[in-house]
Amino acid sequence: MTSAFKTTILGVSAIALTAGAALAQDKTLTINSFGGAYEEAHKKCVIGPFEQETGAKVQIVTAYSADAFAQLRAQKEAPQFDVINFSGGQEIVGAAEGLLAPIDAAKLTNAADLYDFAKANLAGGEGPAYSIAAIGLVYNSEKSPKAPSSWKDLLDPAIGEHLVLTDISNGYGMLGFLMLNQVEGGDLTNIQPGLDAVKKLIDGGAVVVSKSPEIQQEFAQNDAWVAPYASDYAFTLRKAGLPAKFVQGTEGTPASYITTNLVANRPNTDLALKFIDISISPAAQACFAEALRYTPTNAKVELAPEVAADVAYGADSVKGLIRFDPKAIEANRAAWVEAWKKTIAQ
């Protein structure tokens, strides 16, 4: 065999290997998910159907929003994620910093069916919201003398020591507090009305917890009646055998948007867009609602009555969703938490 022929064969082999590696890379996506029950639902509702439909493989990095965003920032020049999921508004900052790529809505077959708020800035790089954690009033349907219907019901002295508040270091606790602040006349430039209300509630016997399992403990062991918290946690309490229900406050429902975002400077754009498209499909969103009681953002989702009762379901219900500006929350978080700590310590 001549050296020239050997060189040709080696060259062809190298090209074949390179092409094979590229193909393998093209059929693999790296995403983050949030661990625990959420990640299990993610696999069932989105990842499994995506792998089955495309033949691709999804690599999961378990990371909550803040940690995933920190990784994305640190890896700006060579990001590991193809698709990144957030629940704390990080997509707004990520898009502004060029870490996320704009999305052409025409490339998503399900985008047209999303509520407008869920696709408001695709062209700016903010990925679509594929689920909503709705914050309202979780209550014990057997012990509470009446079903709450308003955020102002939290101030009813009859609830008093049967009320559970969540520390604002908890994301859901923060949103519940900001809603209470709003109905008391405050806004994101003035949280004093909310702090005054919290002081009054604590003086009336309300307890403050920091984590969701403590809410379950209060409902199970300490005669709690009401807690401002997320719709999915009412479902968690029921699964634990507690008679918990969820209701939206008449003044509005704070919303934590769960978004799926296209990472900039990655080679698998078409495959990543397919993953995002499946995430916003009616089937995937119905699956999340059934598994975890998250509010769907696709108008074509159909839910069983018992599931619909636990979420903000349908065009009329989602009109009541309120998104407090994530940038304002992040900018003020440290100061607000400090003010909160002083209030509950008095």
Automatic annotation (TrEMBL):
<dbReference type="GO" id="GO:0030975">
    <property type="term" value="F:thiamine binding"/>
</dbReference>
<protein>
    <submittedName>
        <fullName>Putative spermidine/putrescine transport system substrate-binding protein</fullName>
    </submittedName>
</protein>
<feature type="signal peptide">
    <location>
        <begin position="1"/>
        <end position="24"/>
    </location>
</feature>
<dbReference type="GO" id="GO:0015888">
    <property type="term" value="P:thiamine transport"/>
</dbReference>
<dbReference type="GO" id="GO:0030976">
    <property type="term" value="F:thiamine pyrophosphate binding"/>
</dbReference>
<dbReference type="InterPro" id="IPR006059">
    <property type="entry name" value="SBP"/>
</dbReference>
<keyword id="KW-0732">Signal</keyword>
<dbReference type="Pfam" id="PF13416">
    <property type="entry name" value="SBP_bac_8"/>
</dbReference>
<keyword id="KW-0574">Periplasm</keyword>
<dbReference type="GO" id="GO:0030288">
    <property type="term" value="C:outer membrane-bounded periplasmic space"/>
</dbReference>
